[in-house]
Design goal:
Elements (H helix, E strand, L loop, with lengths): L1 H132 L5 H30 L5 H23 L6 H69 L19 H65 L11 H126 L6 H22 L8 H8 L37 H16 L3 H17 L7 H18 L2 H39 L3 H43 L9 H19 L4 H23 L6 H206 L1 H18 L3 H17 L2 H16 L5 H32 L1
Helix pairs in contact: 1-6, 1-9, 1-12, 1-13, 1-16, 2-3, 2-6, 3-5, 4-5, 4-6, 6-13, 6-16, 7-8, 7-14, 9-10, 10-12, 13-16, 14-15, 16-19, 16-20
InterPro entries: CNTLN
Protein name: Centlein
Keywords: Coiled coil
């Protein structure tokens, strides 16, 4: 019974230790979760604060930038509007002055013309009066003389003007020359007509001549008026082109000024450190800093530049075409006039030829006055045309100068654009460099954060490893304590038969537990003194109690987490702790409701079974006594087995809770890894890791001290127990041994003199002797009990052996743990080095914070300067507004003037439209005429091509015929030569002829041929000799073809080639003639 009770007490102790360990683990997990939540909250708060600061800073910066950009834009618009208004005012004033000058010039010209007309009329009246004063016979001759004098004066007047115009313009136009020639020709014809004509007395012819002259003069006047209109149109077109070019020049100048201002602003912005352009809003441009957007902008800018240049070029071309059209109209009109004059001259010449026969003199009539007036008008018109030509030349020179100015301005604009592009590229390069630097710094910060995270993770892993090692050491300490308690109980077990011994041992034990309380305070829960009294009377049996090895190499492998900061409460009852434990397990693991209910039910059953030793201290003594009596009689092995099974179930439940706690710890670790992404939390975690390392070092020192104390106690207990094992002493000695052991424990725990220990031992011996005397009477009754006790002793011996083996095993474990402690020390040193490096990094971060604060102060100073600039800009804006009001008033006045001028311009535009319509009609007529002329030319070209082909064919036929003639002559020559040879042979003698005939007959007989066939063969051989000269003839034909195939075939080469063949034919004919003469003589 005592052994079973001892086993139960041991199980209860182990259960209490397990429960305390579990509570500590749950509390540690709760503390860790609370710390993690606090860290997360701090991290979120820091992030919010940083975001708020960044947003406020960005909002302030953007607002200041917007204000600055808006003010700068307003100022620029005001300046540009002022410049534009000034330019428009200058342009309008210049236009008004020009128009006034033009009006004055026209008025002066009109006055001059009117004066000239008046003078001419006065001269005509004088002449008429003179004509009337002379007799009628001399009128005609005098009139002719006057007309000739007037014509000579007009020529003399026109000649210096023409000389002046020729000197002014280096190369006069062909139209002007034609006009001068035509005017001089008409005057000369009109001068020479009365001189060449003979006098005629027919009145009908004189009337017809007068009417014809009248009509001609009127037609001439109309033509010249039309020509004048056309010249005026041409001048107006030139003026319009000139005005448009001036407008373009003004636009180019404005663009040039704006570009110069932009360049100055860009230079200022490049010189200024904090100058930034206005940024677009996200709805306007989502990715304003992308390459695609900037490329598109540059492309659009280039397109606008190209389109503007093309537009200017097209306008220039249009103006040039309009001017050219006006000039073409004038030239067409002049050509028409020239043709009409030529036609009239021809008709006049024809009429003169018919009228030469008549010799009667002409009488002066009324038409002579009209003729004189017409001549004067013609002269005036010619003078006007000459002045218009001069004006046109001046305008051309001005246009050339304007074109040169345009080219210079275009070159300047290109240079400015190139400089702008270079500045933009430099700005883009600087922006890219700044972005690259920012990216590099960001990557460096990210790398630093990752390194700090990795170091923190390494610290956490090392902390977990140290914690696990601590737990293992605590398990080993628990095992050692259990062994110590077992040895104590085993030594004190045989003596506890009566109540006196139990009281003494309880006192001693109470003192020892009191003294050892502070040492065991951090490891497990303290035990009440009454429980210690009740448990000491029981000796544990390892074999029956199913002893579990709690070392590292044991099969159970259970590891209990312990908190570093938790101190378990001693006064709270066990049931409240169990309830708290169940609640914490359910909250951490987040398991399902049925599992939590089953766990609570099992804990409640265990609590019901553990009720006897969990109540008050006073009631426990009484109940304990009653139980001792009842269990001595009724206790059975079945109840103990049930109790053990319930305890095993409880252990399994704790293991499952431990697994859940491990899972929750893993989840918390994942959360920790996410939290460690930022620098602010890293610093806090570094401080917490430092605290943890300090705590771990303190815990390690405490555990080492506890371990040393336990080792000392084990050595003392071994010294006490091992001498008693080989020879079991008699009952009194056995009774005295535990007393001595307890005394020795008391002496070890409490330093007391040896005399007091001896007196206590003597008292205990006396009491034991009295008990032995009283128990000798009852020995007979307990014989059966002694047998059972002997069996129990044997079992205890076995358990002692096992305990010795376990002690050896624990010694090995202690050695291993010493090595682990040394490893931990080295790790601690490494961690200290890492802490130093972290401190250096923290110092660097502090330096960065200082630099950032300095930048913030610089930005504040910039903002202040911007505010000052804003104030200055507002004051300038007010001044500009006042000036703008004045300018608006001036503008209103100028607008009124402009409206009046626009009305005038509208009237002139209407006249221009009418002139353009007439010009278009004339151009259509010209196009029709030109198309007809083109058709005629095409027909003539076709005829010319056909003639050329016929010529080529004629030349080829001629060449072939010449060749045929040459070949015939050659054949005749060959025949004549043969005949001559034959005649010479016949003249020499008949033998040769006979011999030839014989030779031919022999050759024919040899060849099996007739004599005629042989003669034909001989003739063909001679023909081949004649035809052998054909390649030279073919080359001659090829040469002719080559000459004809040239673009412009040379007649000299053709003639030389034909002469060669003709010479050949001549030579051949001469040879033929020489051959024929002797033949004829012989005949």
């Amino acid at each position: 019974m005592a052994t079973k009770e001892g086993q139960l007490g041991q199980l209860r102790r182990e259960l209490a230790e397990v429960q305390t360990l579990y509570r500590q683990s749950t509390e540690h997990a709760a503390v860790q979760s609370h710390l993690i939540k606090q860290l997360e909250g701090l991290n979120l708060d820091t992030q919010r604060v940083l975001r708020n600061q960044e947003e406020a800073h960005t909002a302030d910066a953007t607002s200041y930038q917007k204000l600055y950009t808006e003010l700068s834009q307003c100022y620029q618009t005001l300046v540009s509007s002022e410049a534009n208004l000034r330019k428009s005012y200058q342009e309008l004033s210049s236009q008004v002055t020009q128009k006034d000058q033009h009006v004055t010039d026209l008025q002066a010209q009109l006055q001059q013309q009117e004066q000239q007309q008046e003078q001419q009329l006065q001269q005509q009246q004088k002449l008429m009066a003179q004509h009337t004063s002379y007799p009628s016979s001399n009128r005609q001759t005098n009139f002719k003389v006057v007309v000739s004098e007037l014509s000579d004066a007009a020529l003399q007047k026109s000649s210096p003007e023409s000389d002046q115009t020729s000197t002014r313009s280096a190369g006069p136009r062909p139209e002007d020359k034609s006009l001068q020639c035509r005017a001089s020709g008409s005057i000369r014809t009109k001068q020479g007509a009365p001189v060449q004509r003979s006098r005629s007395l027919s009145p009908a012819s004189s009337v017809e001549l007068r009417s014809g002259r009248k009509r001609r003069a009127e037609q001439r006047i109309q033509d010249l008026e039309e020509l004048l209109k056309l010249k005026m149109e041409e001048n107006e077109e030139l003026r319009r082109a000139h005005d448009k070019r001036r407008e373009r020049l003004c636009l180019i100048q404005t663009h040039y000024k704006t570009v110069r201002e932009q360049l100055k602003e860009l230079e200022k912005s490049n010189g200024r450190p904090g100058g930034r352009m206005q940024r677009a809003e996200p709805w306007q441009l989502r990715q304003e800093n992308s390459d695609a957007v900037w490329n598109e902008l540059t492309y659009l800018k280039n397109l606008t530049r190209k389109l503007s240049t093309e537009k200017a070029a097209l306008e220039e071309q249009m103006d040039m075409l309009r001017v050219q059209a006006a000039m073409d109209r004038a030239t067409v009109k002049e050509l028409h006039l020239c043709l009409a004059d030529n036609h009239q001259e021809l008709l006049h010449n024809m009429a003169e030829e018919h009228r030469v026969k008549s010799s009667t003199p002409k009488k002066p009539s009324v038409s002579s006055e009209q003729m004189e007036q017409s001549f004067k008008k013609i002269q005036q018109l010619e003078w006007g045309i000459m002045s218009l030509n001069k004006e046109t030349e001046r305008l051309r020179e001005g246009n050339e100068q304007l074109l040169e100015d345009n080219k210079d301005l275009a070159l300047k604009c290109r240079r400015l654009q190139a400089s702008l592009d270079s500045l933009r590229t430099q700005e883009a390069v600087r922006g890219e460099a700044a972005q690259a630097q920012a990216l590099v710094q960001r990557e460096q910060h990210c790398n630093e954060i990752m390194a700090l995270e990795a170091q923190l993770a390494a610290f956490q892993k090392e902390a977990t490893k140290l914690h696990q090692q601590l737990l293992k050491l605590r398990q080993e300490v628990g095992i050692l304590r259990a062994a110590r308690d077992f040895y104590r109980n085993r030594v004190a077990g045989p003596v506890r038969a009566g109540g006196v011994v139990s009281n003494i041992s309880s006192k001693v034990k109470f003192k020892t537990t009191r003294l050892r309380g502070p040492l065991r305070q951090s490891s497990h829960r303290a035990v009440n003194p009454d429980q210690a009294i009740s448990w000491q009377g029981r000796t544990p049996s390892p074999t029956k109690d199913e002893w579990e090895d709690m070392s590292i190499d044991s099969d159970s492998g259970e590891e209990y987490s312990d908190s570093l900061n938790s101190v378990p409460s001693r006064k709270a009852p066990h049931r409240q702790h169990a309830n708290r434990k169940s609640v914490k397990c359910s909250s951490i693991t987040n398991t399902k409701a049925p599992e939590a209910q089953s766990l609570r039910a099992q804990l409640a059953q265990d609590d019901k079974q553990q009720e006897p030793w969990e109540r008050g201290a006073k009631g426990e003594k009484r109940r304990w006594r009653k139980r001792m009596l009842m269990k001595a009689q009724r206790c059975s092995s079945a109840s103990l087995q049930q109790r053990v099974e319930s305890l095993q179930r409880h252990v399994e439940i704790l293991q499952s809770a431990r697994k859940d706690a491990v899972l929750s710890a893993k989840e918390l670790r994942r959360a920790n890894e996410k939290i460690t992404a930022q620098l602010s939390s890293l610093t806090e975690k570094l401080s917490s890791s430092k605290q943890l390392t300090q705590k771990l070092t303190s815990d390690l020192a405490g555990v080492e001290q506890q371990k040393k104390v336990l080792q000392m106690e084990l050595e003392q207990w071994r010294q006490i127990t091992f001498p008693q094992q080989p020879a079991p002493p008699p009952p009194p000695a056995a009774a005295a041994a535990p007393v001595n052991a307890e005394c020795s424990c008391q002496c070890r725990t409490m330093p007391s003199p040896p005399n007091f220990a001896l007196q206590a031992l003597e008292a205990e011996v006396k009491q034991l002797q009295a008990k032995l005397k009283s128990a000798s009477a009852e020995v007979t009754r307990h014989v059966a009990a002694n047998k059972a006790l002997r069996g129990q002793l044997q079992e205890k011996d076995d358990t002692l052996r096992q305990l010795q083996d376990k002690a050896n095993h624990t010694e090995r474990d202690v050695n291993m743990k010493r090595q682990l402690v040394e490893d931990l020390k080295t790790r601690l040193k490494f961690l200290q080095d890492m802490e130093k490096s972290y401190r250096g990094q923290l110092e660097e971060l502090e330096k960065k914070v200082k630099t950032l604060s300095e930048e913030a102060t610089n930005r504040k100073a910039l903002v202040d300067s911007l505010k000052r600039r804003l104030n200055v800009a507002t004051s300038e804006r007010k001044q500009h507004e006042t000036s703008c009001t004045k300018l608006k008033e001036d503008l209103e006045k100028k607008d009124q003037r402009i409206h009046a001028l626009q009305a005038r311009v509208g009237a002139s535009e209407q006249t221009l439209a009418a002139l353009e319509q007439t010009a278009t009609e004339q151009m259509e007529g010209l196009t029709q005429k030109s198309s007809r002329a083109m058709e005629k030319l095409q027909r003539q070209l076709g005829i010319a091509y056909s003639q050329l082909e016929q010529l080529h064919s004629f030349i080829k036929v001629l060449a072939s015929e010449i060749l045929l003639d040459v070949q015939e002559v050659k054949q005749q020559l060959m025949k004549r030569r043969r005949l001559r040879q034959a005649n010479t042979v016949a003249g020499k003698g008949g033998l040769s002829a006979k011999s030839m005939i014989k030779a031919k007959s022999i050759a024919a007989s040899i060849l099996n041929m007739s004599e005629n066939d042989l003669a034909d063969i001989m003739d063909t051989d001679q023909g081949t000799e004649a035809h052998s000269q054909s390649p030279a003839e073919q080359e001659w034909l090829d040469q002719l073809d080559h000459i004809l195939q040239q673009k412009i075939p040379s007649a000299g080469q053709l003639i030389e080639a034909v002469r060669v063949k003709m010479k050949e034919r001549k030579v051949l004919t001469e040879e033929l003639a020489t051959l024929t003469t002797p033949v004829s003589e012989k005949a």
